[in-house]
Amino acid sequence: MKILARSAIVAAALITVASAPRAQSTDSIADTLGWKTSLVADFTTTQTSYSDSWVGGEAGSLNWVSNVDGSAERQLSPKMNFRSILRLKFGQTVTQDGETKHWSKPRKSTDLIDWENLARFTLGGVVDPYAAFRLETQFFDGTVAAKKLYFTPLKLTESAGVARQFYKREDEAVVSRFGAALRQIFRKSVIDTLTLETDDSTITDGGLESVTDATLKLSQNLRYVGKLTMFKALFSSESGREAPIGKPDLGLHWASVDINWENTLTAAVSKIVSVNL
Predict the structure, then answer these.
(1) What is the 3-state secondary structure (H, E, C) of 179-226?
(2) With contact defined as beta carbons under 8 Å apart, do 125 and 164 qualify?
(3) pTM for this predicted structure
């Protein structure tokens, strides 16, 4: 029995640019710090195939995923810090039929557009007031193959409250914030697969939000980036809708706490090559 298996990983390109020009005067903190920017891009692909002598039920597959993480931060004035983070992800999978050996059409496996902007008012107190805006969507919804719906669903989040920076050292930081948030979710869906008729819907809710961002350098070549987001809705446009028959609990799903914990561990192999976990 002969098995042929191939896998290839195209390593990530890691580019980090940090500008910190020396100020000619001490009139402004913004002149001292300048913009600190970072860009991390990677492309990963894996392929697996089996010879005709393999009697198992496995079939070949081809997967690829591309990620882009960018950030820009600056102390705009002695009393205002601004940070913008953009995350893009997209990937597809192709599988092989175990009997005919024909390959399927590409199917989406990963899809994300996440853009967040945060302004902290650094007044020198125990906590800093903040205002934030976040946009979350995907490149397209391919639920119905005959009609792709682009940038849906689209979720917008506006929030304001207080923030505290617990740790700061060069490119490392741990910042937590808590406040009130308002969300709008715009969704377009196909309601008739024959005529491909679409329908638009909007959900609005508001409540309390807690966000913690952590960027830590664990070693010379190891970097951790994490984000913990929790949202508790206090009101929603869904509250007046009746639950489906036989599923009464679904009528209160909007009141559940939304928790999202994202973790990325980056190991630098060389100056331009890294591996993400």
Answers:
(1) EEEEEEEEEEEEEECCCCEEEEEEEEEEEEEEEEEEEEEEECCEEEEE
(2) no
(3) 0.81
